[in-house]
From TrEMBL:
This is Pantothenate synthetase. The active site is at H39 (proton donor). PANTHER family: CYTIDYLATE KINASE/PANTOATE-BETA-ALANINE LIGASE, PANTOATE--BETA-ALANINE LIGASE. Its EC number is 6.3.2.1. It is found in: Cytoplasm. SUPFAM superfamilies: Nucleotidylyl transferase (SSF52374). NCBIfam families: cyt_tran_rel, panC. The gene is panC. Homodimer. Keywords: ATP-binding, Cytoplasm, Ligase, Nucleotide-binding, Pantothenate biosynthesis.
Length: 285
């Protein structure tokens, strides 16, 4: 049965208040819609661990860097509801814009440090937009657990920090990246690639895996990065905004995975900005 679509905060609060009174746990899966199997894996994880699950769909204008990107973002509410139907979620919260940003809204949640690099450096204001909307969604849903994808690794770190710093009583749970058979991380943005672009985008993951394997064998990132960038260029990736090896917890730049580490990349292919990251095995001392 399809879940009710709630567009008003009062309706969401009425539902969650009843669940709380009954002592039921609530999981939330925040999304911007255009749902794919990556999103649905988060829904499945939430369903497995929580009594009640709310999926939120809100294309958040504050986290887009350009009006064109915001306008181009796919909006597929009916198809999204159909994809969610088999999961038996309890509510789909699709807030009207004024339920998130009412007239006179003047507050920004900003997380420092973690947001200075990579996505934060390349997309000014993006993470303030994310932190602000996610703080609101955490408080509006009153969820006990929130499910985020490792696909957006830095975002997952940021929302974890934000909830801790603001004493929002919610546990952020990270879920593995779901990939196409080629290895390409699923993303709503992949829809904008041509068949040829999709095939070339599939080169990204093997290049990252190869770098991770060589790092695990003792090579330095400084030595490996130029050839990896060249391989991406040959596959048709244009501007590589960052291609970094970083500590998994602090996001400090590393040259060798002497601690738990991630390899993270953002690059453009055929006018589409793709991001991905993978874990890098830690070197033994
Ligand atoms: P979005 O709708 O793109 O804002 O993403 C909503 C949530 O789904 C975020 O927590 C993303 O990290 C997560 N997500 C997006 N793509 C994937 C994927 N391929 N695998 C796992 N999670 C994903």
């Amino acid at each position: 049965m399809s879940a009710p679509i709630l567009r008003k905060l009062t309706d969401l609060r009425a539902a969650t208040a009843g669940w709380k009174r009954a002592g039921e746990s609530i999981g939330v899966v925040p999304t911007m819609g255009a749902l794919h199997d990556g999103h649905l894996s988060l829904v499945a994880a939430a369903k497995a661990a929580c009594d009640r699950v709310v999926v939120t769909i809100f294309v958040n204008p504050k986290q887009f860097n350009s009006p064109e990107d915001l306008a181009k973002y796919p909006r597929t509410e009916e198809a999204d509801a159909a994809k969610l139907a088999p999961y038996g979620v309890d509510a789909i919260y699709v807030p009207d814009p004024d339920q998130i940003y009412p007239e006179g809204f003047a507050t920004t949640v900003s997380v420092s440090g973690l947001t200075d690099v990579m996505e934060g450096a390349c997309r000014p204001g993006h993470f303030d937009g994310v932190a602000t909307v996610v703080a609101k969604l955490f408080l509006q849903t009153a969820a006990d657990r929130a499910y985020f994808g490792e696909k957006d690794y830095q975002q997952m770190m940021l929302v974890t920090r934000m909830a801790q710093d603001l004493d929002i009583p919610i546990t952020v749970i990270g879920c593995p990246t779901v990939r196409e058979p080629s290895g390409l991380a699923m993303s709503s943005r992949n829809m904008r690639l041509s068949a040829d672009g999709l095939e070339r985008a599939g080169r990204l993951y093997p290049v990252m895996q190869q770098v991770a394997e060589r790092l695990a064998a003792g090579a330095s990132f400084g030595d490996l990065a130029p050839a990896a960038r060249e391989a991406l260029g040959a596959a048709g990736f244009g501007d590589i905004e960052y291609f970094d090896l970083r500590a998994a917890d602090s996001l400090r730049a590393l040259d060798r995975p002497t601690e738990s580490a991630r390899l993270l990349v953002a690059a453009w292919l055929d006018g589409v900005r793709l991001i991905d990251n993978i874990a890098v095995p830690q070197l033994n001392d």
